[in-house]
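Form 7-S
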Amino acid sequence: MSESPKTPIRLLIHGASGRMGQALLRLARERDDVRVVAAYSRTPPAQRVIDNVAHFASAELAGAPEFDVAIDFSLPEGFDPVLALCAQRGKGLVSGTTGLSSAQNAQINEAAAAIAVVWAANYSLGVAVLTELVRQAAAALPEWDCDVIEAHHTRKLDAPSGTALHLGAAAAIGRGRDPHYASLRAGDIVGEHTVQFATAGERIELIHRATNRDIFARGALHAATRLAERAPGMYQLRDLLG
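Output:
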């Protein structure tokens, strides 16, 4: 006897007009395990229904339809209402909004006592695995030199990248001190990160290359499907890999 198909997880997308929001909407349409029930943007939408998804202004969040998990890629000034909505309704939150204040980070930790939350600056599943490998290598080779080399497109202003700093923090946990960083800005490179461990006569390189920005949206959708099943708490992306 065949199993009944699972009911799709109902998603609310916050920050739908941005690059990540648009990728999430497009990729969600290709999946059977999720269904976007509402999309919210900072400015009022020109159309209320696009590709069978209801669109709203962020100011209308309080009247959101029933959902299971919210995915938020917005701006710091728009983050508080979506966190409050998830906390009020007891629903999970997947967020990649960067630039949050210390007060907002404290609010996330407070909300995690009642709802399942994951926040990450990078939703690449490959980077999540790379982070674990870096932590293990640094712990095993604490005396080796460690360097984090990252490359991105010419329009990226921050250096080192947030992902490079995240990988460096993982290395620092294992070896007790920070690595060295090097940054390259060239062409249209989506993102490349190399963590190098070196000593006399040998060298180890752990490398991740992103060739398409859709990987970040796919990772956020993956996280949402796993988070819907989790108890309240603050999760890392690596906790949701399986």
